[in-house]
Amino acid sequence: MNQQKSRTAMGAAITKNMVTEELEKLQKDWENKNLPDLTKKIQEDLDLLKNTTLEIAVTGASGAGKSSLVNALRGMTDFEDGAAETGVTETTTERKSYPHPTFPNLIMWDLPGIGTPNFKAKEYVTKVNFKKYDCFIIVASDRFRDDDVLLAREIRKMNKKFYYVRTKVDISINSEGKKPNFSEEKCLEKIRKYHCDNLTQVGESNPRVFLISRDDLAMYDFPLLQASLEDELDDLKREVLILSMPAFSKEVLKKKKATMEDYIRKVAFLSCAIGAVPVPGLSVVCDLAILVGAMIHICKVFGLDEDSLNRLAKRIGKPVDVLKSAIKKSPLASQITSQFVIDMLTKSVVCGILIMVELVLDFVPVLGSITGGALSFGTTFYILKNFLHDAEKDAENVRTKAVKS
């Protein structure tokens, strides 16, 4: 199998320089802290992230495409189990929460349309409990109205962030594209100016409008919208957003990788501190449960699990086997077990691990006083860094296969 063959080459991506950089970070963390205190701090950081939620409310006029946007941000189509209900008439008559199917810490709220008989503008803020949400996306499909600006003002009073989003831009582009001398860039700028001028006329100062298509998040302004969300969230909520966002571009994959590199460093340190034991039949030490859990987490972050691949296949209208054929180096999340990790250690990375462990012992002598500590740190760090490298490459292969016509 391709996955098994690739393991023989595993390790080429990780150099001593990379490990040295990580150890320098570890040494800085270590300064003025004893092992129990640092271990406790790292465990608390991981637990805090696990329990941190990001709640994004999608609001605006009825029929603007709020429910479709909620589904797109969760990597889902409009027609599968668990999707927010969509339709040509008003379908959202009460506020509903929709957790991300893989990362339930991200909760999208589909709010009823403002200005409908059931939700008069003056009562809207109280009825939908605006204080609950971290940030807001105000959606329009044709133009923004007085009620939208009223919402923005109420959100400002709570010192929270909001974003004006114009949906269904692809439909407008396709319609305008039939005209002679069509320029997509000029058309987008025309649409953006129209909405900004419209918002200014109804009392909004210096508005910014993001143009998006729910069918392809890589198009138009969605990358800018995501970047704005990231910039204005605190560290933990930003991480929740990055982990859960669909991998629609190389830039998103790089952000996911950077987030996972910090996670790996913390996990590797925990493995050195908990008293890991030798792997049966091998001269390496690690905690197999930590490795299994971390690998499964990495796979899910990059969409390399059965559920994520099936959802992506439905969204793009391709057989899931076509997407799986792009995965050359990584296992699927469901294939990762303790025995899988032991087999991987046995077949491919033992020599590389021992070289890295020697470097660890030389660089951070205090780890050598912990039974198995240096071996465990070196083993866990080395394996997971290589695994992350492979997962990122395979996720990019899947993304390329998905967008290929």
TrEMBL record:
- Please identify the protein, giving its name as recorded: Uncharacterized protein
Which species does the entry assign this protein to? Sphaerodactylus townsendi
Lineage per the UniProt record? Eukaryota, Metazoa, Chordata, Craniata, Vertebrata
